[in-house]
């Protein structure tokens, strides 16, 4: 019976939907995390009576047809790249992006990665790095005798040095943005990789046209809304239950049919 297979695709689709929702909920406290949503498409149809086909020798046509669907499939899990809430941390090297843009990170193999996670640290050489020790590009090195470091909204990094009245310029942070942000490949560790779908990165200083600004001492929270995720989870559970009910009903019908043939 076709209903068994059709309902099974619905159950599989809702299982994937729950997995996407569970990942969103699990990362509610992940800095810079962008939530995903599951998108579905219907599968092929069996045309028992094709709409528009000729219904007589006089040239009349069928105004409607008979199409039997074969279920549903998961087609994409795009990321919602909206701005997350920024919150204060009172930590010198925490930097949040307010608006468009990603920090450019140089991975150990030379590959460039991109992140919204601005929870930076200083390594033993004084370089500004990520929590995993990856270098920020372009590199910023903080002198050992720096008393304080300030990062302006436009990315200028300056340090107050003991014995000097004027602050010392340490470098300029840059941001990258993409034509299709949803086309970035999630690498894990709060990082994304460039793909053909995302397009090449466009780089400029914070505050430039089309780019966001920086907030020192702040971090961007995940853009996951707990209420939305829970309501989506309940809807997915109910859809799964209804599909499983169809399987049970189809099985009962097959059982009744088989008993009639005995």
UniProtKB/TrEMBL annotation:
Residues 216-260 form the Flagellar basal-body/hook protein C-terminal domain. Keywords: Bacterial flagellum, Cell projection, Cilium, Flagellum. Residues 4-34 form the Flagellar basal body rod protein N-terminal domain. It holds the Pfam family Flg_bb_rod. It is found in: Bacterial flagellum basal body. It comes from the Bacteria. InterPro entries: Flag_bb_rod_N (IPR001444), Flagellar_basal_body_rod_CS (IPR019776), Flagellar_FlgE/F/G (IPR020013), Flg_bb/hook_C_dom (IPR010930), FlgE/F/G-like (IPR037925), FlgG_G_neg (IPR012834), LlgE_F_G-like_D1 (IPR053967). Residues 96-159 form the Flagellar hook protein FlgE/F/G-like D1 domain. Signal peptide: none annotated. Belongs to the flagella basal body rod proteins family. The basal body constitutes a major portion of the flagellar organelle and consists of four rings (L,P,S, and M) mounted on a central rod. The rod consists of about 26 subunits of FlgG in the distal portion, and FlgB, FlgC and FlgF are thought to build up the proximal portion of the rod with about 6 subunits each. This is Flagellar basal-body rod protein FlgG. It comes from Chelatococcus sambhunathii. The lineage of its organism: Bacteria, Pseudomonadati, Pseudomonadota, Alphaproteobacteria, Hyphomicrobiales. The gene is flgG.
């Amino acid at each position: 019976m076709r209903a068994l297979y059709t309902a099974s695709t619905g159950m599989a689709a809702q299982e994937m939907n729950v997995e996407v929702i569970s990942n969103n909920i699990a990362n509610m406290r992940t800095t810079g995390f962008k939530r995903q949503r599951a998108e579905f498409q219907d599968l092929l149809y069996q045309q028992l009576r094709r709409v528009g086909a000729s219904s007589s020798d006089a040239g009349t046509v069928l105004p409607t047809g008979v199409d039997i669907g074969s279920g549903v499939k998961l087609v994409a899990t795009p990321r919602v790249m909206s701005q997350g809430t920024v919150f204060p941390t009172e930590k010198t090297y925490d930097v949040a992006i307010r608006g468009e843009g990603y920090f450019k990170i140089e991975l150990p193999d030379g590959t460039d990665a991109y992140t919204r996670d601005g929870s930076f640290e200083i390594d033993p050489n004084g370089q500004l790095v990520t929590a995993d020790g990856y270098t920020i590009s372009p590199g910023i090195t903080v002198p050992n005798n720096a008393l304080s470091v300030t990062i302006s909204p436009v990315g200028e990094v300056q340090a107050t040095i003991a014995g000097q009245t004027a602050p010392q310029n340490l470098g300029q942070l840059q941001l990258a943005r993409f034509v299709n942000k949803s086309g970035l490949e999630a690498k894990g560790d709060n990082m994304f990789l460039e793909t053909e779908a995302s397009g090449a990165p466009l780089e400029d200083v914070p505050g430039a046209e089309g780019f966001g600004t920086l907030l020192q001492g702040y971090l961007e929270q995940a853009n996951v809304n707990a209420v939305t995720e829970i309501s989506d989870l309940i809807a997915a559970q109910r859809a799964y239950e209804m599909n499983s009910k169809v399987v049970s009903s189809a099985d009962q019908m097959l059982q009744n049919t088989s008993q009639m043939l005995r």
